């Protein structure tokens, strides 16, 4: 290959990269990597199992977002592949706990193979939702709506109470890693 062919090939490749990629359902790694460029906060969403025993359940979530201030609405997305999906899509109430940068251990507790509430102190609110203490912020919600979102269910909650019980920096997730927000103050 000549030098001009090399330059032409490099320009073609650069142009193709500039146009972007089409999501490929058979290989979602590249799309996941691109989405991972966007830093998110980390939360634990809690509710009670839909049974007579009212067993507490929780899930680590980074899809939390504000929807509206008036009325006060938030949303998060539950993966359909989660063993806890049914609990969260059927519950009438839930709480979203925003984690501090020193609470990464809680992230692991509420993942697929985590310990969940085993040995973890909590209280129940008036709706029977388990509440964790010492969070950066907490939003207690009544389920307002659920929407199909592909391989997730989008859950919208009406905020009935919120609190900011502790100070600190938020736990951040980006590029497959946890970190913290750096500020000058």
Automatic annotation (TrEMBL):
UniProtKB keywords: Oxidoreductase
Family: Belongs to the non-flavoprotein flavin reductase family.
Signal peptide interval: none
InterPro entries, sorted: Flavin_Rdtase-like_dom, NADH-dep_flavin_reductase, Split_barrel_FMN-bd
One function term, GO molecular function aspect: riboflavin reductase (NADPH) activity
Segments forming domain Flavin reductase like: 35-180
Protein origin, superkingdom: Bacteria
Record's keyword annotation contains Transmembrane: no
Protein name: Flavin reductase like domain-containing protein
Pfam families named in the record: Flavin_Reduct
Gene3D superfamilies: Electron Transport, Fmn-binding Protein, Chain A
Keyword ATP-binding: no
